[in-house]
TrEMBL record:
Family matches, as InterPro entries: HupE_UreJ
Transmembrane segments annotated in the record for this chain: 44-62, 69-88, 94-113, 118-135, 147-171, 178-198
Keyword flag Cell membrane: no
Organism of this sequence: Vannielia litorea
Pfam family name, one: HupE_UreJ
Protein name as catalogued: Urease accessory protein
Annotated keywords: Membrane, Signal, Transmembrane, Transmembrane helix
Keyword Transmembrane in annotation: yes
Segment forming the signal sequence: 1-26
Length: 199
């Protein structure tokens, strides 16, 4: 598999720093004056969402083509469907548990270098995307349009996938593969902390 050069990986790794530059402002609600902005920040400011979405990009990069591109497309598309369910009030049991489990499962898949067939990987990612999308949809601020909010959280999610893909390019070397698998372990641990109410 051919990977882009180190510049692309480095650029992807800079995304979190650019996002964190305005986190303090977003935490207070300052500057969030549209549905798009509110939706955009929702996945980025929740660590339970962040670890799972970065994991999707990491696992895709670890699996290689075509998973590196398919998984980060499947997740936001299915997530938008889950978001629509949340907006219209369709109940979904154990949403928070599903979100926490997504970090645990995806992290372990990376940590143990599981090479699932692409259709299996897509089903796993899509299943967890429904929980994340439902949570986003349920938390739609009344003042904003559902459309702008949905576009915002899909874009925010896409950026988090790109971060995972960027770090996933480390798999070109043996040392990088170890680092990526270690990151999977960290993601699983963060997911477990949410699952057991420790975070």
């Amino acid at each position: 598999m051919t990977f882009p050069g180190p510049r692309l990986a480095a650029a992807s790794a800079l995304v979190p720093m650019l996002l964190l530059a305005t986190v303090a402002q977003a935490h207070t609600g300052e500057g969030i004056n549209s549905g798009f902005a509110s939706g955009f920040w929702h996945p980025i400011l929740g660590w339970d969402h962040v670890v799972a979405m970065v994991a999707v990009g990491l696992w895709g990069a670890f699996l290689g083509a075509p998973a590196i591109w398919i998984l980060p497309v499947v997740f936001p598309l299915v997530m938008a469907f889950g978001g629509a369910l949340g907006v219209i009030g369709v109940p979904l049991p154990a949403v928070e548990t599903g979100i926490a489990l997504s970090g645990v499962v995806l992290g372990l898949l990376i940590a143990f270098a599981v090479r699932a067939p692409i259709w299996v990987a897509a089903v796993i990612v899509g299943l967890f995307a429904i929980f994340h999308g439902h949570a986003h949809g349920q938390e739609l601020p009344e003042a904003f349009s559902a459309y702008g909010y949905a576009v915002g959280f899909v874009v925010g999610t896409g950026l988090l996938h790109l971060v995972g893909i960027g770090f996933g390019f480390l798999t070109r070397s043996e040392a990088g593969k170890v680092a990526v698998r270690g990151a999977g372990g960290v993601i699983a641990a963060v997911g477990a902390a949410f699952l057991f109410g420790l975070a």
